[in-house]
Design brief:
Shape: globular
Oligomer: single chain
Strand order of the largest sheet: 3-2-1-4-5-6-7
Distance between the termini: 13 Å
Number of strands: 13
Helix content: 40-55%
Radius of gyration: 21 Å
């Protein structure tokens, strides 16, 4: 069968690649064409466009990129019609993919949505569109089960693919000695809002005797380059950037400061004590709070905390994210052993709730079963 997949960011590339491996294992004649990244490309098939050329985040970024988004949508729709796939598989990235879902539905092309739009956080109106335009919705979090049941949106749940990604990684220690990991996000806006406070935190910690020999390693995002970080870390020889080694960095770090996102759940599954931060422009924060009313719908911004429905680790949101609060929390993660051990116990519960390994192949198998029903 012919599968057309669309992923618009680094996490989608990761999950898309594992799903593609499952599709190949379940369908030896699988023919795949996709928008994604290097991980998906390594599985096989034809890469149409890299997510590095398409990703945008935040209201202000979207407004600046309207022309590019419009061109990408036009090109994607034309390519789908030309290739005539058996199914289009949309992976997260709802701002773009919901428009593709409507287009495919209107043109009689079957649509699967993998990693559902987070309508439990905002834009609940999308649930009606999911029911109207998507043939099969595949969710990946246990807390989504009662939500989508209540909303009347049919779904399939086969576990979370991050468990496979974390457990199948071959870990190699990035360096000898102690270090704190910094994951500043994957987009320019995230980096520009996370790094200044992170660097000031590192300066304060490095001045303390307990941390004088400690390094600070920034996990470089796949879609970014060294120059995106250099202006922040210049003059700090104890801070450096490593690309392509995020899981390794998390595995052996004493603790991590993480911009909210998939990386926070990855850290929980790997077992890295963490503090999550989230900061954006005042205008984007206003849109999130007052227009989209994100925090009216959810208690927490981190997936691990949402899974437990309690705080396993601290969240520093907008004005609460300062060099002082970040330093205080990193010190507690390193120095307060009972606090650290309680967090690791919560991590074990998060892993248990997500289920075991094999989710990606199980989803691939379920997709093929759905296609056979047509």
């Amino acid at each position: 069968m012919k599968y057309y997949l669309i992923a618009g960011e680094a996490s989608g590339d990761l999950h898309g690649s594992n799903l593609m491996k499952g599709l190949v294992a379940e369908d030896t004649e699988a023919d795949m064409r996709f928008w994604g990244g290097e991980l998906m490309q390594s599985v096989g098939g034809t890469l149409v466009r890299s997510y590095k050329d398409t990703a945008v985040m935040g209201f202000s970024d979207v407004m600046r990129s309207l022309g590019k988004i419009s061109r990408n949508l036009r090109d994607c729709k034309a390519d789908i019609l030309s290739w005539k796939p058996d199914v289009v598989i949309l992976i997260d990235y709802p701002g773009f993919n919901m428009k593709i879902a409507e287009f495919c539905h209107d043109n009689g092309i079957r649509v699967f949505y993998y990693i559902a739009p987070k309508t439990w956080a905002s834009r609940e109106g999308r649930n009606k569109k999911l029911k109207a335009w998507v043939d099969s919705l595949f969710i990946v979090f246990p807390f989504e089960i009662p939500y989508f049941e209540q909303e009347g949106v049919p779904f399939i749940y086969k576990g979370n693919p991050l468990v496979d990604a974390v457990d199948n990684h071959e870990y190699v220690r990035p360096e000898e000695g102690r270090y704190i990991a910094i994951l500043a996000g994957s987009r320019k806006g995230e980096i520009s809002h996370t790094m200044p406070n992170a660097v000031k935190m590192a300066e304060a910690l490095h001045a303390l005797p307990l941390y004088s020999d400690c390094k600070f390693i920034v996990a470089g995002a796949p879609s970014r380059s060294q120059k995106d970080y250099d202006r922040h870390i210049a003059g700090h020889d104890y801070i450096r950037v490593e690309f392509g080694r995020t899981y390794d960095l998390l595995k052996y770090a004493d603790a991590a400061l993480i911009n909210s996102g998939t990386a926070s759940l990855e850290a929980a599954l790997i077992g890295t004590p963490q503090v999550v931060c989230w900061s954006t422009t005042p205008f984007t924060a206003f849109i999130a709070r007052k227009v989209l009313r994100v925090l009216d719908h959810i208690k927490y911004i981190s997936l691990g905390n949402l899974i437990l429905d309690r705080l396993a680790f601290r969240e520093l949101i907008q004005n609460d994210y300062t060099p002082e609060t970040a330093e205080e929390e990193i010190r507690r993660l390193v120095e307060d052993l009972p606090y650290r051990e309680a967090m690791l116990a919560d991590y074990a519960e998060i892993r248990e709730r997500l289920g075991g390994t094999g989710a990606s192949r199980a989803v691939a198998g379920a997709m093929i079963e759905q296609l056979k029903k047509q």
